[in-house]
Design brief:
- The protein has about 120 residues and is α+β, with helices and mostly antiparallel strands.
- The chain has helices at about 35-45, 110-120, and strands at about 1-5, 5-10, 20, 50, 55-60, 65-75, 75-80, 90-95.
- The protein has two helices and eight strands.
- The strands form three sheets. Strands 1, 2, 3 and 8 form a four-stranded antiparallel sheet that branches. It has a two-stranded antiparallel sheet with strand order 4-7.
- A hairpin with a 4-residue loop joins strand 5 and strand 6.
Length: about 120
């Protein structure tokens, strides 16, 4: 999710990924479609809404006990003040070119670069 050249990151507070910076997101609720889950999780974790108009792709993260498939969407900022909510310890806007300097969850740097290309087209 973008506001100019800035991307919105959250610092994970829950057991899975605690302390790592990531993109807002979470589990799909029963009966929920993927894009609706992306909008809901963005709002719950950050207080922000966006026009999530571009599918970036699906990415896999494997742990010892589970494999996560993460569907990523991107689009321009619409409204709201970025504040940590739900399972986020922090939320912040940062320039996309410095994302690699954060302690990142898997795939985040690559997803941000790909999303930037999609948004710039």
């Amino acid at each position: 999710m973008w506001r100019g050249d800035d991307v919105l990151l959250i610092k994970r507070a829950s057991a899975v990924g605690r302390g790592y910076w990531s993109l807002p997101g979470g589990k799909i609720e029963p009966g929920e479609i993927t894009i609706a889950a992306a909008h809901r999780e963005l709002l719950e974790e950050t207080g922000v809404t966006a026009e999530l108009s571009h599918a970036v792709g699906d990415f896999t993260v494997e742990t010892v006990s589970v494999i996560y498939v993460i569907s990523c969407f991107t689009g321009p900022y619409v409204d709201g003040e970025a504040v940590a909510g739900s399972d986020a310890a922090a939320a912040l806007w940062t320039h996309w070119e410095v994302v690699h300097q954060f302690k990142l969850a898997p795939n985040i740097s690559d997803v941000v670069k790909l999303a930037r290309k999609l948004i710039s087209v």
